[in-house]
RNA sequence: CGAGAAGUAGCACAAUUUGGUAGUGCACUACAUUUGGGAUGUAGGGGUUGCAGGUUCAAAUCCUGUCUUCUCGACCA
């Protein structure tokens, strides 16, 4: 087991991030740009994410399917806005073996057109609706700059694609899935996310509305951590998807799509991690507890088997003869929420030492109380991690009342800045040109209380701006 | 994609300037002694120096190309 030195977080955040990814053995670089190897420690986190989210999707009536990997050029071209948005980052296949393809195909950058192409054949009647399909798969987008988890060319994700009889039903689905994502990230990943609507400029290519989950990293930079789109009938019309309604009238269905990626793992690292390495929220940690033996003694071995006998959370035992300090450091870099140190010194009082990964606080408990204490502690850690992240994020939320103030904050302070905004792309672009900040999301539940800080015309929205990964 | 930097064992680096047997530390394997914050000893294993060409009697070292990584920009759901 290698343990690499981690660059201090406040010294060089970017380097710290890659150091943690490597030291915790989450990923490894491959020789293919933008395609990382997700190692067992990293993949186990993704499996936990899948397990919890997939169960939630299914509870809400969704079914999993698997669509083709390739999209013929003509199929991608069917919906004009869609293809225009994706064209620059599409990877093309022109040959199959020696044979040049008559029509080139791209590796799916997302699967809307594949689902539509299928749905047009299977949706005939209102009885066929809703169609609630999801797939777990990889997609390819030819990004120019890549970073582990945050931006890769090969993306491991989940994409839901649904078709509905009515606009209302489809809009409800869009919001329902947005909230599934929001709840998951808040409650399971302990990420204090902000949800809202993307601007026209930033919305998904081909969507009517794009809702987004915006997380703020330790350094104040935004990470878009999931989106849920309402498509209206645009794709359905382009693909000629129709159904007969209850009155025997031919109708066009309404569509949604929604997705999250392994980028969420990057968000966990950059929100909770520290100079010792990864810190995993208990609810997503594949291993909740690690038991570390100190010294080679029969009493220690016996105590470990007693503790594990009725432990009802996932655990690992490290009874190797590596030095205690080494074993502690290794457990820390992997982010395991609780470690139990079992050594003779405590056993004299029939005690063991529990150590919280998030605070590194040491707690002595009687051997017989370990199980209850762990249950309680996992819960406390989960809550504390969320609250600490929330507090930190709140300390980097600003509101600007005029453009000078906006520019000053943008220049001096990392984080998100809330403003009144007229809704025009011109003002959005001006902010981008002047400060490099992009719009994060429109806050639908807040009403503007002044004029647009850029042009001073009547404001339409409250909106957050911020730098993004 | 533009500008810059870097690639030598799993990791960190030396040897490159001045071409001449590829080395050190950590990690790894075995045994022994250890064990409450990154143990110690002894003995071992691991390399087409990112890849491909070229120059040369001889290339880690010089030249060309290419790939990957990092930083900054541009681009980007």
Short description:
With 469 residues, the chain is of the alpha+beta class. The chain has helices spanning 13-23, 40-59, 73-76, 80-86, 112-122, 167-188, 234-238, 263-272, 298-309, 324-333, 344-347, 370-394, 403-412, 425-435; strands at residues 27-29, 36-38, 63-64, 70-72, 92-96, 99-107, 131-140, 154-164, 194-197, 209-216, 222-232, 243-244, 250-251, 254-261, 289-294, 315-318, 338-343, 351-356, 362-366, 397-399, 416-421, 438-442, 461-466.
Q: What does this protein look like?
A:
With 469 residues, the protein is of the alpha+beta class. The protein folds into 3 domains: 13-272, BirA Bifunctional Protein, domain 2, CATH 3.30.930; 289-378, Anticodon-binding domain (Rossmann fold, 3-Layer(aba) Sandwich), CATH 3.40.50; 397-466, C-terminal domain of ProRS (Translation Initiation Factor IF3, 2-Layer Sandwich). The chain has helices spanning 13-23, 40-59, 73-76, 80-86, 112-122, 167-188, 234-238, 263-272, 298-309, 324-333, 344-347, 370-394, 403-412, 425-435; strands at residues 27-29, 36-38, 63-64, 70-72, 92-96, 99-107, 131-140, 154-164, 194-197, 209-216, 222-232, 243-244, 250-251, 254-261, 289-294, 315-318, 338-343, 351-356, 362-366, 397-399, 416-421, 438-442, 461-466. The strands form 6 sheets. It has a 7-stranded mixed β-sheet with strand order 3-7-8-14-11-10-9, with helices on both faces. Strands 16-15-17-18-19 form a 5-stranded mixed β-sheet, with helices on both faces. Strand 10 (209-216) and strand 11 form a beta hairpin. The protein is globular and about 80 Å long. The model has no long low-confidence stretch (mean pLDDT 95). The structure holds one RNA strand of 77 nucleotides.
């Amino acid at each position: 087991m290698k343990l690499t030195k981690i660059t201090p977080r406040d010294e060089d955040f970017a380097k710290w991030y890659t150091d943690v990814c490597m030291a915790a053995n989450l990923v490894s670089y491959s020789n293919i740009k933008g395609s990382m190897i997700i190692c067992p420690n990293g993949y186990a986190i993704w499996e936990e994410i899948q397990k919890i989210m997939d169960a939630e999707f299914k509870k809400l009536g969704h079914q999993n399917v698997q669509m083709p990997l390739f999209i013929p050029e003509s199929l991608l071209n069917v919906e004009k806005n869609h293809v225009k948005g994706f064209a620059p980052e599409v990877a093309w296949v022109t040959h199959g073996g020696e044979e040049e393809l008559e029509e080139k195909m791209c590796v799916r950058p997302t699967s809307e057109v594949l689902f539509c192409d299928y749905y047009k054949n299977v949706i005939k009647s209102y009885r066929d609706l809703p169609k609630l399909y999801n797939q777990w798969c990889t997609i390819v987008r030819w990004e120019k700059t890549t970073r582990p988890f945050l931006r890769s060319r090969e993306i491991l994700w989940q994409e839901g694609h649904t078709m509905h009889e009515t606009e209302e039903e489809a809009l409800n689905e869009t919001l329902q899935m947005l909230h599934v994502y929001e709840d998951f990230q808040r409650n399971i990943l302990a990420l204090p996310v902000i949800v809202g609507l993307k601007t026209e400029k930033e919305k998904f290519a081909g969507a009517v509305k794009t809702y987004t989950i915006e997380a703020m990293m330790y350094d104040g930079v935004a990470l878009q951590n999931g989106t849920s789109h309402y498509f209206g009938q645009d794709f359905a019309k382009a693909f000629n998807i129709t159904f007969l309604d209850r009155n025997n009238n031919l109708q066009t269905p309404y569509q949604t799509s929604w997705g999250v990626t392994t980028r969420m793992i990057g968000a966990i690292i950059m929100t909770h991690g520290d100079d010792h390495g990864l810190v995993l929220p208990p609810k997503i940690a594949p291993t909740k507890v690690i038991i570390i033996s100190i010294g080679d003694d029969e009493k220690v071995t016996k105590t470990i088997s007693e503790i594990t006998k009725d432990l009802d959370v996932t655990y690992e035992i490290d009874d190797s003869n590596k030095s205690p300090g080494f074993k502690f450091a290794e457990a820390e870099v992997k982010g395991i929420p609780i470690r139990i140190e079992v050594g003779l010194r405590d056993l004299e009082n029939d005690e063991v030492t529990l150590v919280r990964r998030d605070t590194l606080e040491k707690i002595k408990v009687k051997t017989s109380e370990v199980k209850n204490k762990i249950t309680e502690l996992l819960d406390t850690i989960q809550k504390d991690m969320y609250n600490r992240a929330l507090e930190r994020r709140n300390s980097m939320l600003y509101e600007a009342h005029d453009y000078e103030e906006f520019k000053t904050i943008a220049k001096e302070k990392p984080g998100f800045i809330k403003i009144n905004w007229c809704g025009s792309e011109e003002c959005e672009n001006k902010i981008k040109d002047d400060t490099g900040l992009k719009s994060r999301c429109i806050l639908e539940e807040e009403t503007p209380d002044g004029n647009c800080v850029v042009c001073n015309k009547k404001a339409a929205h409250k909106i957050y701006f911020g730098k993004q990964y």
